[in-house]
Amino acid sequence: KSKARQKGDVLFFDQSINEQVQHDFLLEEELRHALSRDEFYLTYQPQHLIDGDQLHGVEVLLRWNNQSLGQVPPFEFIPLAEDTGLIHEIGLFVIEHACRDIAKFNAEQGQQIQLSINLSPKQLIAKDFINQLVKRVDCTGLSYQSITLEITENVLISDLVAVTPVLQQLRDLGFSISLDDFGTGYSSLSYLNTLPINEIKIDRSFINKLLSSDQSDSLVKTIIAIGASCHMKVVAEGVETNEQLQRLAQYRCDIAQGYLLAQPLKFEQLCERYPSSQSAINSPA
Length: 285
Ligand code: C2E
Ligand code: MG
Ligand code: MG
Ligand code: MG
Description:
By secondary structure, the chain is an alpha/beta fold.
């Protein structure tokens, strides 16, 4: 009896592994064709200055709508894109289209907003990355100063030696560098001084517990103070309630991003949500 059951368990186990392998295989196969089939699109999540509540910029977030798998979330396809090397082409697609959109937004809405782009460290350390980046940006007329490149803290530290000189070159060109998901990694305060970083994004897990955990509260307060003393902008991710926003204002956090302000929006929605400023409408043609 016990043998049969063991056998059954093993079979069941094998099947689920098999299904996982098949799913991964399908995912990879579909990902290889996603660009040519035009299945990617971009969304933009607004970032507001906390003091004055005005639009500071947007973070571009990639979306994939596949013909057979439907909507696939970034946490599933970004790691796969990194493992397969597809991230290079996909990343350049994001850069090109986001810069074009935001240049258009600035021109038509009479505003000058910041564009934040997520980068995988694999992209950063690719030989020709900076050339490719600059080429794409130059075509759109967007200034390097209006672009912030976000790098996740964890992966940055693990590739520190390779990544640091690239970040320095990007800073020298005028790009801003943001440390994403701050607080979740193995960060040491010394990195903040040695790395060419001018923004930190407090991970949304801390904002989530801001009102319910004293520990999160003091951590957030401390991160904001450290950011200020290092002359960095501090962004809070995942702001979902007014209470969180008020607490962040009290601690003098610079910028907020989250569902309270807006979900990630398609470009048309972004333009509707933030129409031309009065001064732009009244300015002489
Ligand atoms: P991230 O850069 O930390 O982006 C923030 C994530 O939090 C986004 O998830 C966003 O939709 C979500 N979010 C924003 N506000 C709230 C909120 O108030 N509550 C909650 N619960 N969530 C909120 P998303 O779009 O699923 O992206 C996940 C991750 O995928 C991103 O994390 C980023 O690391 C990566 N990613 C997205 N687009 C790209 C891309 O173009 N290139 C690369 N390399 N990575 C990307
Ligand atoms: Mg990000
Ligand atoms: Mg983040
Ligand atoms: Mg995050």
